[in-house]
Write a structure and sequence with these properties.
This protein is an alpha/beta fold and 218 residues long. It has a single domain, classed as 3-Layer(aba) Sandwich (Rossmann fold), CATH 3.40.50.720. β1, α1 and β2 form a beta-alpha-beta unit. α3 packs across α4. The longest helix has 18 residues.
């Protein structure tokens, strides 16, 4: 499958590399067509199935698109990608609207809105599915790094799109426990969780952790 990955950071590179290793063709998109990180990533992955371009190139290339851009820049990046290139496609939104300007992270949007909702409103012809934003990149592509089975979440308005994403999470990344939270408004909760994630990150001194929903024994 042809996959577009928007963003050249750790999440984009980790997801992109995993998909290349699975045999998919992946184009990493950045603001500039010859972004040094994207060029280096493609070279490291062999360039046969690892390609690079700008946001519009990657969005047009991908049958499915991952948004791995910085949350505060996601809307601008997606505008550069172009609504016409995203129309009718699944966009897996992994971004968080975080302000990193101090050690105490904060959210630039929360409570009554979310980045996931903002993206869906601006791109109504795209099937936005929020997922993979609550875990570190290396856990995203290898949940067995953790000692126990943990949970990953999906939020989105379209059931068929969510079913496709759930299949991707299971078959490509190896997730066993996936919880469908509901429509795109449930992005609020998983994005706000990132403040707790930050506190946990400091407390456990590791990036490799996740949450597990423990149900009643009855």
């Amino acid at each position: 499958m042809k996959i577009g990955v928007l963003g050249t950071g750790v999440a984009g590179q980790t997801i992109g590399s995993k998909l290349v290793h699975l045999g998919h063709e992946v184009m990493m998109g950045a603001r500039d067509v010859d972004n040094p990180k994207a060029v280096a990533w493609a070279k490291d992955e062999g360039e046969k199935h690892a390609l690079f371009g700008n946001f519009a190139n990657a969005a047009s290339f991908g049958e499915i698109v991952f948004n791995c851009t910085l949350g505060t820049a996601s809307l601008n990046a997606l505008r550069m990608a172009g609504a016409e290139n995203l129309k009718g496609k699944i966009l897996i939104d992994t971004a968080n609207p975080l302000d990193y300007s101090s050690d105490n992270w904060s959210l630039t949007v929360c409570n009554t809105d979310s980045l996931g909702e903002q993206i869906q409103r601006e791109f109504p012809d795209t099937f936005v599915v929020k997922s993979l934003n609550t875990i570190n990149a290396d856990v995203i592509v290898n949940p067995t790094k953790l000692a126990e089975r943990s949970d990953v979440f999906v939020s989105g308005n379209d059931m068929e799109a969510k079913s496709t994403v759930i299949r991707i999470l299971r078959e490509w990344f190896g997730w066993k426990s996936i919880i469908d939270l509901g429509d795109i408004t449930t992005s609020r909760g998983v994005e706000m969780y990132m403040l707790l994630w930050r506190s946990l990150r400091k407390a456990v001194s590791s990036y490799q952790f996740n949450v597990k929903v423990v149900r009643s024994a009855q």
